[in-house]
From TrEMBL:
Gene Ontology molecular function, alphabetical: hydrolase activity, acting on carbon-nitrogen (but not peptide) bonds, in linear amides
CC annotations in GO: cytosol
Gene: ntpR
Protein name (record): Protein NtpR
Xref: Gene3D superfamilies: 3.40.50.880
Region feature Disordered, mapped onto this chain: 63-113
UniProt xrefs under SUPFAM superfamilies: Class I glutamine amidotransferase-like
Organism from which the protein derives: Symbiodinium microadriaticum
Domain of life: Eukaryota
Coiled coil start-end: none
Length: 399
């Protein structure tokens, strides 16, 4: 307490001198008192006094040495296993889970956390600027009897290569009440997943498509099974992005979500509802599931035509992948078409206020450019323009 009292008194003297005594040389007065304050604040000669943190020293960081580890970590105890566990392991049985007791020295843990953050920022370049935060909700996958949350590294790599920070949000139900903790948001990427649930569509006042049943539903069972927690998270984030003007790149299922939130409607099943439909979705067991392509006609004077201009020289046609059995029926308010499949199914749209240089980017693509990097150079430009918009949106918000 004496140390802290001396530091407080030093700053009181500094303020008193400036406001009451009014020294002849204020600059010298400030320098003298700041020098005194630094000596009180700096816990170690090894630390740069210009970046000192009061009450912390190097010993407050965990090391691999047992004596240090023992100081900062609480004892461990094993948790009895009941039934299957949720640990994601590659091979063999999962190890018994370990849990920490509540630490008794919360103040020391807090000090350690502050110093760790301090040391991390010291390692960053002096010219470093915070990258735009692009939020992405994970997807659930059943693996070896356990659910695993994941997001394709195609997306993560493209976000990071173009200067963004990918913030992965767990799709679990308990994430919903804590969603605000993942903000601020400078961009939103919404990608593939299951069909959107009626429950969440109704909650947001959106039109629900006709649903398949019986054998028809079983054909696309992996898509027709609803994932309500994921829907809740992505609808909440997309509504927030729409309200704030935050850039949105929506792919496949994401484009369908963006369309209904703007008042559009959906085709419940292309194969059943669209005459002479091309194949938009192969069975997952088909060897050509990932290599399957179908043509689309790109409309001129659209972002899609701009991204693929090096390809669309003597043609208006691209060949794209396809992983969807649903699609856009009618476009939502303020959205304009960019491409159609031969059967008339919409394959891309954009917001009429589109302008990445001003941070405005709301795009829906029914295909997956991240899986077509070797097909066309324009696929990468989709993400480049998206991240350009995210950076400019961040600047406009003065973050």
């Amino acid at each position: 307490m004496g140390h802290e009292h001396d530091l407080v008194r030093t700053f009181q003297e500094l303020l008193h001198g400036l406001l009451v005594a009014k020294p002849a040389d204020p600059f010298k007065h400030v320098q003298e008192h700041l020098s005194k304050a630094r000596k009180l604040a700096v816990p170690s000669d090894d630390m740069d006094p210009h970046f000192a943190i009061v009450g912390l020293d190097e010993r407050d960081i965990d090391t691999d040495e047992d004596r240090e580890h023992g100081k900062m970590c609480s004892p461990l105890y094993r948790v009895a296993r009941g039934g299957d566990d949720s640990d994601a392991t590659d091979e063999g049985p999962s190890p018994a889970r370990i849990s920490h007791k509540v630490p008794s020295k919360r103040r020391e843990l807090s000090k350690r956390s502050e110093l760790q953050r301090y040391k991390l920022t010291r390692e960053l370049s002096t010219t470093w600027t915070a990258p735009p935060r692009v939020l992405c909700v994970t997807r659930r996958h059943l693996r070896k009897g356990k659910y695993v949350d994941f997001l394709g590294e195609y997306h993560l790599d493209l976000i990071q290569e173009n200067g963004g920070a990918a913030i992965m949000i767990p799709r679990t139900a308990l994430t919903v009440p804590a969603l605000a903790e993942y903000l601020p948001m400078d961009g939103l990427l919404v990608v593939e997943g299951n069909d959107i649930s009626d429950e969440v569509l109704n909650k947001y006042g959106c039109s629900a498509p006709d649903r398949l049943d019986g054998e028809d539903a079983m054909k696309w069972a992996s898509d027709t099974e609803f994932d309500v927690p994921k829907d809740q998270l992505e609808f909440a984030l997309m509504r927030l992005a729409l309200d704030s003007g935050c850039p949105i790149l929506s792919l496949c299922r994401g484009s369908q979500m963006l369309n209904v939130l703007r008042g559009g409607t959906l085709i419940g099943d292309i194969e059943k509802e669209v005459p002479n439909a091309v194949v938009h979705l192969k069975d997952a067991s088909d060897p050509s599931y990932d290599s399957h392509r179908h043509p689309i006609r790109v409309l001129p004077n659209t972002p899609l035509a701009s991204w693929f201009d090096k390809t669309l020289i003597d043609t208006d046609e691209l060949s794209v992948n396809s992983y969807h059995h649903q699609g856009v029926r009618t476009l939502g308010k303020g959205l304009k078409p960019m491409a159609y499949a031969p059967d008339g199914v919409l394959e891309g749209f954009f917001d009429e206020q589109y302008n990445p240089s001003k941070g405005r980017f709301m795009v829906g693509l029914q295909f997956h450019p991240e899986r077509m990097m070797d097909d066309y150079p324009g696929c990468k430009i989709v993400y480049e323009d998206f991240l350009t918009a995210c950076k400019n949106f961040r600047k406009s918000r003065n973050f």
